[in-house]
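Researcher: Here's the sequence for the chain we discussed earlier.
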Amino acid sequence: GDADGEVQAQAAKLVGDLRLGAAGPALVARVSHGAPRVAFFAAQSLGKLAQSDAAPALLARARENGDRDLTLRHALVMGLAGGRNLPVLHAAGRDPAVAVRLGALLALRRLGDPAIAAFLDDADPFVVAEAARAINDAPILAAEGALAALITRPDFGEDRLLALRVL
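Model: Thanks. This is the structure I predict for it:
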């Protein structure tokens, strides 16, 4: 609760490193902090504490961030992956905000969840390409069939890197 943002950031980092689960609610509150550094360490620590109930706050911050701060996006993904709240992550795949869908996708990649295949049908080409990278590069074997099925799309081959992963 210190007034100094850097003190809050370091405290958030420390409670995650020490796995002080009682700090979970305070960390959730700090995810929406105006200082990105405070939000970064709060999100990372929520992942270390495996706080599944933090997923809505982490996704809300991803929406607000809009992928402008990629370092913050990484911390949010780590918080989401650590929380392992699969129902919320799967539902986030239908969110109107690309940044929310991408955050959920990246968390599912870290978890190796085959439900990531649903992102291959996303309206945003970057999200589709990221899903293909996750399935091919991780690899997520249970989703490889869905990736291979992209070869039948009329626009197959327009994105050479995507086509390489499909093949």
